[in-house]
């Protein structure tokens, strides 16, 4: 469990600027979290319970976990992050208690974002587990989620690439009822992601990210990250080769257009 009981300024995401594309998701989350903190009095007078729980779903590598880091940083929230399998393995025999404890911890740390990654592994459909452990865990989740709302200052986010495996009761109104789909990025989104990820990378002036974004159809954000990382390694080799074993004198490895295009076309 990653537990940050002070606002996240730990060198992770620096906020929305680190996210390329995903504009609809970003706007939905901003409205849900930022509005109530800017206008708490108005929300205190709103009689209907406001939704504060989100399920992010979509193919692997498409930014579900990444956007959570950005939310935490942008909204200065405390952050408790739990990976699904970790919760079941670490607390064998006491998993429901662990769920209770995590929600209490989040309430004590409010304003806090409580994040369950790989949620399908802890909250699968009930009735299929001979030991009954996951069924009890799901029941506990239902109880805890019923107690969470905007005014408690706890935002529960969960992520999965297999929403079809989740117990349907978790997705009923009032629980994880804001469903946000992180799909493969469009060409424009790939360009945005490439710009964000390459912000700190030395690039030759001939690099045309727009061209790369057209060459990388069906790439996820994680694939684009891997592409840049491979290009950077290639640039390191080129620099070392050009020095023939001699000193690089602090020269930076620069990514060239040729390298980037060659790696993109092979992927
Ligand atoms: P999984 O289902 O496998 O957990 P995921 O959807 O949670 O995948 P992330 O871990 O969020 O995927 O993304 C992997 C990496 O890809 C991130 O660390 C980031 O570097 C990059 N990335 C993905 N999407 C984006 C994006 N929209 N903007 C910037 N970087 C992104």
Automatic annotation (TrEMBL):
Keyword 4Fe-4S: no
A GO MF term: ATP binding
Biological process per Gene Ontology, one example term: protein import into peroxisome matrix
Residues covered by the AAA+ ATPase domain: 50-186
One of the record's GO cellular component terms: cytosol
Record flagged with keyword Protein transport: yes
Keywords noted in UniProt: ATP-binding, Cytoplasm, Hydrolase, Membrane, Nucleotide-binding, Peroxisome, Peroxisome biogenesis, Protein transport, Repeat, Transport
Compartments in which it is found: Cytoplasm, Cytosol; Peroxisome membrane
Subunit text: Interacts with PEX6; forming the PEX1-PEX6 AAA ATPase complex, which is composed of a heterohexamer formed by a trimer of PEX1-PEX6 dimers.
Family the entry assigns: Belongs to the AAA ATPase family.
Protein name, UniProt field: Peroxisomal ATPase PEX1
Species of provenance: Erythranthe guttata
Residues of the full protein shown: 820 to 1086 of 1127
